[in-house]
Amino acid sequence: MALGRFPGLAEAEQLRQRLLALDIESRLQTRDVVMGVDYWLVMPVVGGERHAVIQLSALQEQGIDSFLITRGEMAGSLSLGVFAREDYAQVRQEQLQYLGHDVRLHALNKKEQQYVVEVGSKARRLVDQAMLTRLRADFPGLQHQYQPCAGVANTGRIP
């Protein structure tokens, strides 16, 4: 059973400590949760950083907001904006393409780290509806989700 979805570590740890005080074994888990999507307009540049800087200067002279991407898989390309809505990004992409620029649209997942407290299958029977009700009094919005048990067959033991 997974309890939580806490945005901060402190509250998840407080719940885990409460369960330990009740003699319920649990462990803290961190999960990356996709909270939405942003749309990034990127112009690839062939020829390395020197050509990218020349292209960047040309764009800025035209009054086009842009900057050089220096890290990650897009390093060496030019960023032409990040948009919360895909339709806005597409309109801007079309405007830039009309001006003769090769601009590509990339979807970026916005992720947030959240914390859950997992109660193992042996201790699961101790967390009944009455206990969940009491825990929700101290942890408003507490969610619970039943997890499937770990596989019985272990691939290391299968001949």
From TrEMBL:
InterPro entries per record? SPOR-like_sf
Q: What are the recorded GO MF terms, alphabetically?
A: peptidoglycan binding
Q: What is this protein's record name?
A: SPOR domain-containing protein
What is the organism field in this record? Halopseudomonas bauzanensis
